[in-house]
From TrEMBL:
Protein name, per record: Universal stress protein A-like protein
InterPro entries hit by this protein: Rossmann-like_a/b/a_fold (IPR014729), Universal_stress_UspA (IPR006015), UspA (IPR006016)
Lineage: Eukaryota, Viridiplantae, Streptophyta, Embryophyta, Tracheophyta
Organism domain of life: Eukaryota
Domain UspA residue range list: 16-103
Length: 106
């Protein structure tokens, strides 16, 4: 007997709707962060990129010649981090500039 594969497929309109919502959320979040930096006289640049976060972040650091990369840490435990990987850990070891890792507030 042949094995059956199942999958979930979204209609293009649903995919487009989700993409637009993600884009709007990203734009609002970056605008707020940019304004905070501006108020504190911190030169900042914002980008919205797609792909594997750890790879894309490190590539962007090189492209914009960043002086400092600030990344958040979700505070995963050792076991979860081993399975899921850590974007902040990857960036700390591969980014071409100093990296500041901000841990979550307790």
């Amino acid at each position: 007997m042949l094995g059956l594969k199942s999958g979930v497929y979204a209609m293009p309109t649903v995919v487009d709707s989700v993409k637009k919502a993600q884009d709007a959320h990203s734009a609002a979040l970056l605008a707020k962060a940019f304004e905070v930096c501006k108020q504190r006289l911190v030169k900042a640049e914002t980008l919205v990129l797609e792909g594997d976060p750890k790879e894309v972040i490190c590539q962007a650091v090189e492209q914009v010649n960043a002086d400092l990369l600030v990344v958040g840490s979700r505070g995963l435990g050792k076991i979860k981090r081993a399975f899921l990987g850590s974007v902040s850990d990857y960036c700390a070891h591969h980014a071409k500039c100093p990296v500041l890792i901000v841990k979550p507030h307790k």
